[in-house]
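Bit of a strange request maybe. I'm writing a small parser for structure token strings and I need a real example to test against, not something I typed by hand. Could someone generate the tokens for this chain?
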Amino acid sequence: MDTKPLTIDGFLYTVPAPGEDPGTARFQMVVSPTDDAEDDVVWSCTTSNSRIAYALLTEIQPGDLLHVSGVLTQPDDPTEPARLTVDDLEVLAHAPARALQDMVLDRYGDYVVVFDAHTDTVPVFTACGQWVGTAESPDAIGTLIENYERVNGGDG
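Reply from user aminoacidic:
Good idea to test on real output. This should exercise your parser:
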């Protein structure tokens, strides 16, 4: 078996799964050496570092950009895939959809509101995306829309 140290940046490709032993995890990353999708490579990864395994299984999601270091093992049989055993992991950027986990979009006729679990204020837009304003609470949405319509001459 041939082994060598390796550090790569890539996107988490699949939902991480627990490994065979406690405190371990396995996952796949997509690494793109160029900007062309046909050059993408999927790496099979494992970790026996319980801190990394915990983060993978509870915090990190597909689409997150990761920086990982570890040991690449190429089996003697060339038909078997190489495996990267990860010793260090850093999240460089979270996937864009992650921000919507604690948010809910809702329609009020021709208006769209964004409820965020972390705040009482409610951003309001027209269905076409024009900014209306921020309601101080969900109870103030109707008043904000009425004022907007009065100033702008009708529905959004």
